[in-house]
Amino acid sequence: MQRNITHNFSNVYTPVKAILIYQKENNEQERRSSDDEVYVESYDIGRNGRPVNAHPLSLKESLYFSDMLRIRHVTENSFLKCRGILPANLLYLEKESDGFAIWHTPPMERELFFVPELGIPCGHMKVPAMLWKGSGDQLSVFALNDRRKPMLNSPLFHAPYFNMYSDGRVCMGTVKLGIHGDTCLEDFIGLWEKYFFSSYFSHTIGGGSIAGMNIVQLWQQQAKSGQKFPGGHLVRTGKTLKDILV
User: Fold this and answer.
1) How far is 40 from 60, CA to CA, in rounded Å?
2) Which of 63, 118, 185, 229 is 20 to 30 A away from residue 69, measured at CA?
3) Would you kindly state where each structural domain of the chain is located, as residue ranges?
């Protein structure tokens, strides 16, 4: 499956080195093998973008490239690696460099922050059980109407929060993400929950922030009552846990 990753590019990369590998020509009837003689030539890249200063690859350069490849290999193998036993609330783990994790949290009290324009006081409020799906650069959140561990056929509900798209994705705004290629699973889960609840809820996005009543009034009511989140105001998405395991 092809993916457009252009949005992930935030830095400009300039070519500085090129390597050309020559291999000894064999008789057409002979097979090439890893034992064939090779010669490696290294080039610097000039200001005009053309290779200059051709020279045999030095031992120093070889060690430098070897370290780069080793570090990348270690980093990729470290992403979403667990320090010990897998967390009890983990539901699914795709442990690749572009992988993701799915976990759930029970109904609880969390500190929520709202921009003044909404007229909702900030403070500790009861929130519903939630299902989270996080990757290296994106978070999706759903609500659950059951505190028990969800099953594959468990229905997902729209997360009754601001800053939400209708498909469950969260608009993170200007939040600076600190999730990297070597972030372990425990930190990964903790960081995404921190980013979500530490951000200021500020706006609705067309078709998102769906609840069974006006969402501003819903959270004004929660702030005032201090009661557990009313499950009757959760709205089904039409999806189950199985539908988001991709």
Assistant:
1) 13
2) 185
3) 13-78, 90-244
